[in-house]
Every structure is written in structure tokens, then in C-alpha cells.
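Entry
Fold in C-alpha cell form

___
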Amino acid sequence: MSTDMDLWDADEAAALVPAGNVEAERILAATAMADPGCVDEMAAKGFDPADISDERYRMVWFAVEDLAGSMASSAIRWQAVAHKLQVWHGEGRMVARPLTENELGELYMSAIPGAAEYWATAVTKAAVASRARTLGSMIHVKASSPAFDPDTDVAAIQSEVDNLVRPAGQSQMVDLGDLLPDVLVRATTPPTNEDRVPTGVIDLDALLSGGFAPGQVVVIAARPATGKTTIAAGFARAAAFTNKIPSAIWSLEMGREELATSILCGEVKIALHHVKQGIVEDAIVARAAARLPELAAAPLKIDDNPYLTLPGLRASIRNLVRTFGLKIAFIDYLQLMQAPPAENRQVAVSMISRALKLMAKEFGITIVVLAQLNRGPEQRTDKVPMVSDLRESGSIEQDADIVILLHRPDMYERESPRAGEADLIVGKHRGGPMATVTVAFQGHFARFVDMAADA
């Protein structure tokens, strides 16, 4: 949408939106002068003074905030506030006419010490309602425009709706003492499926204290054709089929039919190349068909949109968390995501990885993202990958809680004594140990399994 349209949107919306709760703002400003300590108290509870719509009262709040550090008294007299406002007005920092000393004196008498939280809540409520009306007006204008794009505009609108009640940057501060009892409870309570997503690999689950945790970003990285999608599909099968944990896969490279084929082959042990050739034996087809009702009922969704954007992903995750109870999301793979505008590719990837971490934390889910490695492993004698081999490794490595590097020795040496084996190298594990877990690669069945598993 053009700049002119954006300006018109804002003007139209502003004309339609009534002011906030000015009476609550007046009392709150007065209370701040009489009880300046409430300014810090309200900030710690997430109050944003920008929600005070009347600039005269908003600047009183800021003046108290500025003066509080240098005033010894438990109250800040209106004379000091009046002087500060006059200075700011003269400097151009305050557009509206400041309240005079007499007006501030009268305002001071309206203070209600001890009730700041009540009036701050009233101010915030009015501000949220005002922003909602503004957003509603803008949505109407945007949706009426020929340039309206459902894929991007709806996701952006949803993000704005989310921020109405809980604006970005709201304080989450709590006392340490309130957290410590829960730490001791967790210390004596083994993780369960309620707070972990098992991977289906016994040794990996043991290393990760039961599996992946909510709020984590897990990176699975390897060179092309090593089996990133296959191992991720295995984790998804363990979550959805074995543990009935709501899961979703966003596949930017492989189509939904191809991915479904791989998942089915890995679950019921059908030779993938036989499926592609259409020569699967009737007995094997019957065995697979017998499990179809069970597998079809599993909580696993697939999206193969190759043009996945961050706003689109966030909107989808948000919807699935609310309607489906989503616990784990798989993205295949990071470097194929539509990058936001940035000065270079490294910055764009950094924005993507940071956004994924924020989504995982905000929605309380695990996000497993696949990523390509550069040619670093191929230039080493042992071919073993390292975390630093991640393309644009700085931001990905920084934001990830767990980095699993997939290595198959027989990719580089056909006669390797370790043919059919693969290493899951946990190269980063925030808050836990790093180790290498060896699994068996059954490429014909499109799956990785525990070394002790039946063929």
C-alpha cells in the first residue's frame, strides 16, 4: 500500500477514535506527584505511560519520573514539576501548553495515594480500547484496498491484534523468591509427555531429559541429501503417532504427497523405492492399510507452501496452538524461508532465527528447524560436521537451544566399517550435556532407528 494511503489511514483512524480515560489520567498524574514511588512500581507491573492520551498529564508523569532521582522528599511538589514542564516546552519536547503552577497545585490536591494501580489499569483499559478502534478503522481501509493481500495483510493484522492487550516490551519481572520453589519441585519430578516431546530415539531422549522442551528452538543441520527431512519426519512420527502430541510440519522443499509417502514408509516399513515404482506387494499394502485409521487419527498436520513467510508462520502457529493444541513445529528448512527485507542475507537469516525463538517462547512450543551446512565437513579428513559449519552460523547458533548435526560416514566412504550408521552430534545443548548418539540409517524405509531396534 502506498505511503499516501498509509497517511490517509492514520488520519481517518485518528478522527474516529475518542480520547482515553482523561479523568483516570488526571488522578494518576496527581498521584504520581504525591507518591513518586508509584512511577517505578507501575513500570515494574508493565504500565506504559504512552497510554496516557492527554499530553499534559503524560508529561507530568515523565517529569515526576525525571525528578524522582534527585528529590529527597517522599512527594514532589508541583512547583518543581511546573519548572520542568516549562523547560521541556521551551526546548520543544512538549507540544501542548504545560499546566501552570496554579493548575498543577489544584491537580496535586486530586491525588489518591495507594490507588495508583487502580487508575493505571483504567488508563490502560481505555488505551487498549482506543487502539482497538484505530486498528478496526485501519483494517476496514486496508481490506477495501485493491492492494489487499490476504497472505501478508491478515497475518500482520493478527499480530497487531495480539499486541493490543499485551504490547511488546511489557515487563515480565518477578521476584526470584517466587521462582525458587518451582525449581526444587522440578528437581525431584522427572519430565513427562506433558512438558517434553520424545524424539523416539532412546539415547537422545535420555540426553535431553525426556525429549524436546517447550520454548526451545532445535536446529537439525547437515549437508544436502544426508537425511535431515527423514530424521525430522521420524521425530514427528514419534510425537504424533507414538505419543499423540499435536505436531505440524512446514515443508518448503518436499511436496505434501512426497512427505506423506516418506512418513508412511518409515512408520510401517515399506520400501520407499517400491512405492515410487508401484510394485509394493499386496500383503505389505494390506498391512499398511490396516494401520491407516490409526495413523489418519494422529495429530499431525502438513503445510507444503514453498513461500512461507514469518508473519504467515506466526499466524498459522498461533491458530494451531489455539485450535489444535500444537506442541511441536517442524520447518524444512530455514534457508528456504522467505526472508524479511534486510541489507544482506546474513542479517535476514538472523531476523528469521530470532523470530523463531520468540515464537517458541511466546507460544510455549518446540520449534525444530532444519538447516543446511556449508562445505566445511567435506574439507576435513574425518568429514565430521561442526556447529560452525552452519550457513550464517552466528545467529542460528546463538538463538538455538539445541543443535543436532547429522553425520553419515558411509556418505563419504562406501566401504566404511560403519556403513548403515549415522551420528546425531549434539553440538549445542543449552543447560545440558553434549554428546553423540549413534543410530541406524534404514534408507530404504526412509527412517533412522535405535541401533538395537529390529530391522
Observations:
- The chain is about 50% helix and 10% strand.
- Residues 1-18 have pLDDT under 50 and may be disordered.
- The longest helix spans residues 116-144.
- The longest strand covers residues 421-429.
